[in-house]
Amino acid sequence: MPLFRVRECSKISLSTSNTGTCSRMALWARSQVEDELPLLEGIDRQTEIQGRKVVRMPGFKPATISQLLKFIYTANVDLNPFNMVEVYWGADFLCLDKLEQLCLAFFSENLNLSSSIAVVQTENKPLPSFKLERIGWNHLLANVIKMSTDETLRAMTTKTLTQLVESDELNATREESVWTLIVRWANCDPEERAKNVPLLALKLRIGALPFNFVAYEIAEHQLMESNNSAANEIRLRNLETNAMISVRTNNPGSMTGPVPTFMKARLPHSLILLMGGRISTPDAINTTTDSVLIFDIHTQKWFEPKVELRVPMDEENFRRLAMHKLVLLGKVLYVLGGADLGIPSTKCNKLNLETLEWSEIKSFHHQRISMGATAVDNRLMVAGSGFFQSTALVEFYDPASDTWSVGPSLAHPRSSAGMVTVGQCVYLIGGVEGFRTLDSVEKFDLQKQKWILVASLNEPRRAAACVECHGFVFIFGGLEGTRYLRTVERYDPVNDAWSFVSPMPSAKSQMACTIIGECIYLIGGVSYLGNVKSVDVYHVLEDRWTRGVSLPVPRAAAAAATICGLDVCTKLVSRQERDAPVLRIACDDERASDPEQTETFATEDYSSSEDSLFDEENLVFFYWDSYSEDDDEEEEYYIENEVFVFVNHDEHEDDSSETESSNSQENNENIGGDSDDDRSLSLLFGLD
Fold first, then answer.
1. Dist CA 14 CA 24 (whole Å)
2. N or C, where is the chain less crowded by C-beta within 10 Å?
3. Where does the record place the BACK domain (predicted)?
4. Can you tell me whether residue 592 is helix, strand or coil?
């Protein structure tokens, strides 16, 4: 904006109700203006009093003026959560760019939901503060779902919540949590806020919600009673979503044009990256691959990233890896060792997640395969290795110097062990020494710089998946000798004790493993039938399992990592993937829970049996009742295709027909029964 020159004056007064005076040259020196000192235009802001130029700064506290003057003369400032925003506005007002940067850095380091809400909702700003608001918005988008309290929701306006719910960038691992946020916000002040809930519900991504959740938990919610038209629109969108999924599944080329926003997934803040492994295809069985896959928890799809993420071997070829490790340290993903075309390797690479560029780092001192690897104390740590002859060698990698150094050796040589970090301690769990599967667990204390034995596993195991969550260590499946395990054990470091939790849906080993939020993903692996493509999800807080989206082809001995951050995630996801409708999934309590049936349906084709009717690829979702040994009756198989539930028991046929009829009648009443509506039920389900 145009600004006055003040070359003719020697002093400037920054005036509110009180006045502070500074030298024109001092202010000019601190500002980033090359030609002339910037002062805001307008006679109401700049006047002359007793021969001095006075810059009016309405709304600023005297304490803020004092901090501005202190910075002008000393380049120092005393920032705290209470004055930072106003000091930033003052710095912006006077073009003190260095002070602006200090304020932005302070705000970023001390972010919380309350301060972010205060920044984005402040109405009377001296100047627009886009950088500050962007930082606040990014923090809200990333954290409001998982960190909001009643206090922060009470301070949030309808406008702010609407913008959050509308945003593609809202970090919601499950869309159900967005509806929960709306209800919690409304319950903070029901009398004033209840009327806004139906309109907020229309901003939800209906396609990312289970059909029954929308039909009963949202459309029938008491907070929706004030707006029947909004409730009916949600019911209609619910039907539309199933119809589009059905048509796209059975006849993909029949639908063109843009996908409605309510069917699109939000942008991911976390992605699963799966690298390498041994794959099984009709042309090749157990072949080591260089491929990289990405899984988006929002669209529930596996796909190839839009940028090249395969590990380069040379200018033309890529490394084909199995039994390697992925370790994330800051903004860098490290690929360590493994079998490169079947040969144990010393090579290590790193991927800069900000630039998505690969580079090679210093190699191991020794070849390593099936070793343990983790990050601790800003360094990488690897331990154990080997096929038939295990090693006790330990190495540390320092990213700053690009060097590997030898650490204290293990108490027992081992390979194929699980390795995790908990606080300042590293645990190496199970594994194999020669042909003997181990149940022993070693702990490395960084302060004492030595390994000690802690409580042993309840079952010896090797080639198991291992991860830390909420201070506990979980180890899944693996092998004991030649027997595949489906048991899961949890270690409590405080009490030094292992205990069993809910077993895996099927017995397998060599799974890739990673964690997003409270969910641990076990990807692929190998079982008695060979490599598998099934993905199982363990919900830590609820101690239960659900079925994930299977891999395109069976894969074992791969490595997985969770990539976090909206910026890097959006670089990896193509526009084609973002514009596709989300794959609707079932409520968790309706997902596969029986281990043998889950494995059968997920990995095998039984075209000669009645079970071939249950085709995973052509169903919206499917599930089984939990099996009970005490139940003498034949177990029921449920399939939900489009909007109806069918039961394969003859005695239920009449009930299901009546239910189907009543549901159809109810849905027609909700929509209004308009036969001329271009979104009628007959069109939705392709009926003549």
1. 11
2. C
3. 84-219
4. coil
Q: Are 389 and 434 in contact (CB under 8 A)?
A: yes
Distance between CA 678 and CA 29 in Å, rounded? Answer: 67
421 closest CA partner among 465, 491, 473: 473
Structure tokens at 275: 């690298």
Rounded CA separation 329/311 (Å) = 17
Q: Which of 355, 354, 319 is nearest to 337 (CA)?
A: 319
Q: What's the rounded Cα separation, in Å, for the pair 644 and 639?
A: 9
Q: With a cut of 50, which residues of the chain have pLDDT below it?
A: 1-11, 16-18, 33-52, 586-688
| Structural domains of the chain in order of their starting residue, each with its CATH number | 270-573 (2.120.10.80), 596-684 (no CATH)
User: Which position has the token pair 């003026």?
Assistant: 65
279 backbone dihedrals φ, ψ, rounded to 5°: -110, 155
Identify whether the C-beta of residue 367 lies closer than 8 Å to the C-beta of residue 384.
Answer: no
pLDDT score for 269: 87
pLDDT for 128-185, tens place per residue?
678 888 899 999 999 999 899 999 999 999 999 999 999 999 998 889 999 999 999 9
Other CB atoms within 10 Å distance of the CB of residue 649: 13
Question: What is the model's pLDDT at position 21?
Answer: 59
Q: What are residue 429's phi and psi, to 5 degrees? A: -125, 125
As beta bridge partners, residue 149 has none
Phi then psi for 624, rounded to 5 degrees?
A: -125, 155
Distance between start and end Cα atoms, the chain: 64
Please report which helix (H) or strand (E) contains residue 500, including its range: strand 497-501
Tens of pLDDT, residue by residue over 624-651, are 333 333 434 333 333 333 333 333 334 3
Q: Cα separation of 92 and 96, whole Å? A: 6
Please state at what angle helix 176-187 crosses helix 130-147, rounded to 10 degrees: 100
Q: Are 596 and 305 in contact (CB under 8 A)?
A: no
Q: How far apart are CA 607 and CA 35, in angstroms?
A: 81
What is the model's pLDDT at position 607?
Answer: 31
Model confidence pLDDT, tens digit, residues 326-362: 999 999 999 999 987 678 889 999 999 999 999 999 9
Q: Is 119 helix (H, G, I), strand (E, B) or coil?
A: helix
Best CA proximity match to 133, nearest among 151, 108, 152: 108
Phi-psi region of 684 (alpha: psi -120 to 50; beta: other; left: phi over 0): alpha
| CA 528/CA 522 separation, integer angstroms | 17
Q: What is the pLDDT of residue 254?
A: 57
What amino acid occupies position 456? S
Which residue bears the tokens 């009970």? 628
Pairing relationship of beta strands 450-454 and 394-398 according to DSSP bridges: unpaired
How long, in residues, is the chain?
688
Contacts of 315 by beta carbon, 8 Å cutoff, 6+ apart: none
Q: Which helix (H) or strand (E) holds 234?
A: helix 228-250
Quick one: pLDDT at residue 115?
87
Give the separation between CA 348 and CA 363, rounded to whole angstroms. Answer: 6
pLDDT at position 69:
82
Q: What is the pTM of this model?
A: 0.71
